[in-house]
Design a protein that fits this description.
53% helix; Arc Repressor Mutant, subunit A; single chain; 5 helices
């Protein structure tokens, strides 16, 4: 049955078809009683979702102290430095602003 299923998928999708091993794995999971194709949760560090509360807290900390570092924000909010960087640059759209260059007259 699995071979027929995979063959039919190849006919329909051609080269864009999923690999045979993936199709077989999904079919075995379905036959074992699983109806969801998502992977089961794995042990390890949980993925922190950047929700609106965290984003607004980071923004508030930056507005309170413009010289605060991303490491200080990470420690205060107990999130990773990478998450803070993602929030600052991708979610809030902030970037570094260097000092203005001035023309030196001799």
């Amino acid at each position: 049955m699995l071979h027929k299923f995979n063959h039919r998928m190849k006919e329909v999708y051609g080269e864009q078809c999923l690999p045979r091993c993936t199709v077989f794995r999904w079919c075995h999971r379905y036959e074992a009683g699983r109806v969801n194709i998502k992977d089961l949760p794995r042990p390890g560090q949980a993925h922190v979702v950047t929700n609106s509360a965290t984003i607004s807290t980071v923004d508030e900390l930056i507005w309170q102290n413009r010289r605060i570092t991303s490491r200080e924000i990470a420690v205060e909010l107990s999130i990773s430095n990478g998450t803070v960087h993602h929030i600052i640059h991708k979610k809030l759209g902030y970037g570094k602003v260097g000092a203005q260059a001035s023309v030196r007259e001799s």
